Amino acid sequence: MTGSIEQGTSQTHGNTHILHFLVRLPRPMEKVWPALATPEGLAGWFTDVDVLEPRLGGMVALRGLGAGEITAWDVDRVAEYTVEGGGRIRFHLERDGETGAALRFTHEFQGEGESEPSWRARFERLIEQLGEGPQRAP
Q1: How far, CA to CA in Å, does 138 sit from each of 56, 115, 126, 133?
Q2: Cβ(81)–Cβ(94) under 8 Å?
Q3: Average pLDDT for residues 102-113, to the nearest whole number?
Q4: Domains of the chain
Q5: For the chain, how long is the longest CA-to-CA vector?
Q6: 98: Cβ–Cβ under 8 A, 6 or more apart, which residues?
Q7: Within 10 A of 17 (CB to CB), how many other CB atoms are there?
Q8: Best CA proximity match to 91, nearest among 112, 117, 64, 60
Q9: Which of 10, 11, 91, 113 is deepest in the core (most CB within 10 A)?
Q10: What pLDDT is recorded for position 82?
Q11: 3-class SS at 37?
């Protein structure tokens, strides 16, 4: 199974912009989770992380986006980071067949912010990162 990025959608409500993506990943949820919820994993495809306290209400600081807090946290399923200047970034994992995971991604922000093409490029890096190396049983 290879990964794929389904068409992203963008909505604007006044000064609030919301991007949605559905990304199909070639690994099971528990193998994808560290890429979304650890400093090392996020640095591999998204951005460097200065602080990440892995719990609801924990502090988070994403380089280039800002500092804030973890506003949703369900291990192996949901990580949501709300950062000053970067808005709300939500990763929601679901099972996708026997060996894959589907990532439902939402980025809600005010004013000028990340565009759909920059997120698409990041998700391509994530798919590439997850596809490297042999798949090993846990």
Answers
A1: 26, 36, 20, 14
A2: no
A3: 88
A4: 4-131 (3.30.530.20)
A5: 47
A6: none
A7: 19
A8: 60
A9: 91
A10: 97
A11: helix
In angstroms, how far is the first alpha carbon of the chain from the final one? 18
CA distance 20 to 104: 7
Q: How far is residue 19's CA from residue 119's CA, in Å, rounded to a whole number?
A: 9
Please state, in angstroms and as integers, the Cα–Cα distance from residue 100 to each residue in 22, 32, 39, 73, 95, following that order. 13, 9, 22, 21, 6
Question: In what helix (H) or strand (E) does residue 128 lie, and over which residues does it extend?
Answer: helix 116-131
**Cβ atoms of 5 and 123 closer than 8 Å:** yes
Question: Which pLDDT value is given to residue 42?
Answer: 97
Which residue has better confidence, 8 or 77? 77
Give 101's strand partners. Answer: 25, 95
Three-state DSSP state, 78: strand
Q: Which residues, at least 6 apart from 84, have a Cβ–Cβ distance to it below 8 Å?
A: 66, 67, 68
Question: Mind listing the pLDDT tens digit for each residue in 40-56?
Answer: 999 999 999 999 999 99
Instruction: Give dist(CA 35, CA 14) in Å, integer.
Output: 33
pTM, full prediction: 0.89
Report d(CA 52, CA 60) in Å as an integer.
Answer: 4
From the centroid of its chain, how far is CA 65?
A: 14
